Amino acid sequence: MRSGFNPFGIAPVIRNDDVEEFERYILDHREVFQKKISLSIYDCNVLLKDANVLEYAAYFGSIEIFNYIIKNAPNIDDLFTQRLVNFAVISGNPEIY
User: CA 46, CA 31: separation in Å to the nearest integer?
Assistant: First the structure.
């Protein structure tokens, strides 16, 4: 699978803005809120290197997952970064920026 983006783990779930699958995933992987999403050989944008889940959702304009994370992440303050604003603008989704 070569789509230009990471096909592994939580990455495609976030890109597809599939909040139901995201909820299922975090039942077994609660640490997802603390981890960074690693680049894969398929990623075409190095800006995504070590993005947290909120940054990744913002970058792809995944509003449902973005809102879910804001409401449910136990470490929400840690997820607000300087890069988050840039990723929100890149997404082009006015609901995020």
Answer: 23
